[in-house]
Design a protein that fits this description.
By secondary structure, the chain is an alpha/beta fold. The chain contains 17 helices and 15 strands.
Length: about 575
């Protein structure tokens, strides 16, 4: 229940504090007194666009604050889940919503003093508060929303949500299968080319580093004679030739050994010479062995040239390096293997998809049967409620099938009876109304009377409030198109009965409705200095009589108007 509504610096509302009670609360006032700004404040809590034009002249920000208390019921559970956030109720079960509109069009949102996003504030606000105005009329008129109303009345919302999740899983699996199918077709379309390319690369027998090795070997073969001759020179000069370096070093060693025998400090020099001799001997023998290995092989050189030429053609053809050609070969192997793997995977997904499609179809038919059963109950309930608001002969129908609005686009899944299945099920529903006998029922959008639509909206709101947890219902234009008299009285009594299960806040200009409220507030404006200020105050018994008389007679309140107001109040309050 909305226990307190505070508004500060919103247009002509300087600072307003409304303490509200359970049951039926009504607000009245002259045209332009500021009633619409109270509705605008509620809109802001429900996510309406914030404009700096709403901020009172001279102020930097406007603030709207709503405190909810009492038994919050389902509205107090899981608040903010729609926006991915969660909040814990205060110990006393209160929820405080606040929105601050700052110049520049920006706004800040809070729940229980915790900063939140506008999306979260909107989600929580709509759980706690329902506003019925011109926008609500359009919501109830739109056939797309009628199925949700039927589900809410029939207690099928959770079942419909479970079906929606099942359907969305089917859609996800269908998209997965389609992606696999598209990929398989894509691979199959280029499989022949891929197979040819792979065969060519496989036949080439590519090896990592092969090209570098062949280039080096080719250079050795091209210069084999020179390499052999060079190795022989090294071996000869160091070891084999007469007067070779190692022969000279042997003589040198004898001389150095003589010196070291007499001069101990030369022992280190002798060791250095011996080490040098050993290294030179190793070098000489290595040159000799290298000479044995040098190949004079023209055929091998020809083979290498041909292989390098083949590799060069392959690189030019595929516009890759040899390393990239190896990568390409591996990718082609994977692609060709993937065609087979995709076929297996697609078969598995297809099997799951078929099973899930069967479940979706079964659940759609089960949900449809429950909706078909709930539809006549809703029709009877609406007609009974309409009798209480001066429409005793009205006929209300819940229409299924082709007559019910636009058909859904095909999504590839149909019910056993041929109906298209969408995420809302296999049903298309639209409400029809015949306000007067002798007329065929027509879609709500074709009902011309605003008064009839206002009463139907109230009836549907009442029925849904009985099915859902208690909430605060705000009515702004429930008396639209109603001039007064017995219809207005019936509407006021209906709101009075609705207030027995839900808190009702109604802005009206009809005394027949205002007299039915338990609490009556007056919205009035006055001039303070050079500024216009709107105020809201609760009326006492005598003030309420004066206001009801004003609503009946206008500004000139007569004794007859006062007497009529007193009679209205006495009758309505029982």
């Amino acid at each position: 229940m909305l226990s307190e509504l505070r508004i500060k610096n919103l247009a002509i509302l300087d600072e307003v504090a409304l303490s509200l009670k359970p049951g039926f609360n009504v607000l009245t006032g002259e045209t332009g007194a500021g009633k619409s700004m109270i509705v605008q404040a509620v809109h802001l809590l429900l996510g309406a666009r914030a404009s700096e034009d709403l901020i009172r002249h001279g102020a930097e920000e406007a603030v709207v604050e709503a405190r909810f208390g009492g038994n919050l019921g389902e509205a107090g559970e899981g608040r903010g889940e729609e926006a991915g956030e969660s909040f814990s109720p205060e110990a006393e079960g209160e929820v405080l919503l606040r929105r601050v509109v700052v110049r520049g069009g920006r706004s800040r949102c809070y729940i229980n003093e915790q900063a939140v996003t506008l999306k979260t504030l909107t989600a929580v606000g709509r759980r706690l508060l329902s506003l019925s105005g011109q926008h609500e009329y359009q919501t109830f008129l739109a056939p797309d929303n009628h199925l949700g109303i039927l589900d809410a009345f029939g207690g099928l919302e959770e079942e419909a949500q479970q079906f929606r999740r099942l359907y969305q899983e089917w859609r996800r699996l269908q998209e997965e299968w389609q992606a696999l199918d598209d990929k398989q077709k894509e691979l199959a379309a280029r499989r022949e080319l891929a197979a040819f390319q792979l065969q060519e690369l496989e036949q080439a027998d590519l090896k990592a580093g092969e090209e570098e090795n062949l280039l080096a070997e080719r250079e050795r073969l091209r210069h084999s004679v020179q390499l052999w001759e060079a190795s022989q020179i090294v071996y000869g000069r160091l070891y084999a030739d007469k007067g070779a370096i190692l022969e000279k070093l042997a003589e040198t060693r004898k001389a150095l050994n003589y010196i070291a025998g007499l001069e101990s400090t030369w022992q280190g020099r002798l060791v250095e010479l011996e080490e040098l001799t050993i290294r030179l001997e190793d070098l000489a023998l290595a040159a000799r062995d290298y000479g044995y290995q040098v190949r004079l092989d023209p055929q091998r050189l020809l083979d290498i040239e041909q292989r390098l030429d083949a590799l060069s053609r392959l690189k030019r053809k595929y516009k890759v390096t040899l390393e990239e050609a190896l990568v390409l070969r591996g990718r082609l192997r994977q692609e060709l293997a993937a065609v087979e793997d995709l076929g297996v995977e697609k078969t598995l997904v297809q099997r799951k998809l078929s099973d899930l499609a069967r479940r979706v179809s079964e659940e759609a038919m089960r949900l449809s049967a429950r909706r078909q059963a709930a539809a006549p109950r809703l029709a009877r309930a609406v007609e009974e409620e309409l009798k209480q608001v001066a429409m005793p002969l009205a006929r209300f129908e819940v229409s299924f099938g082709e007559e019910a609005g636009e058909t859904s686009s095909s999504v590839g899944l149909t019910a056993p009876d041929g109906r298209t299945i969408s995420e809302s099920g296999a049903d298309q529903v639209e409400f029809f109304l015949a306000p007067n006998p002798g007329e065929p029922p027509k879609p709500l959008a074709r009902i011309a009377s605003g008064g009839e639509l206002s009463r139907l909206l109230l009836v549907l709101k009442n029925l849904l409030a009985q099915k859902r947890a208690a909430e605060t219902l705000v009515f702004d234009e429930v008396d639209a198109g109603i001039g007064g008299g017995s219809v207005a009285s019936a509407l006021g009594q209906k709101l009075q009965r609705l207030a027995s299960s839900s808190q009702v806040i109604c802005i009206t200009h009809l005394p027949q409705i205002a007299c039915c409220a338990a609490e009556h507030f007056l919205v009035a404006k006055q001039i303070k200095g050079e500024r216009t200020v709107a105020q809201v105050r609760k009326l006492g018994k005598e003030e309420r009589l004066q206001e009801l008389a004003r609503l009946l007679a206008g500004k000139a309140i007569t004794p007859a108007a006062l007497a009529q107001a007193r009679e209205l109040l006495t009758v309505s309050q029982g």
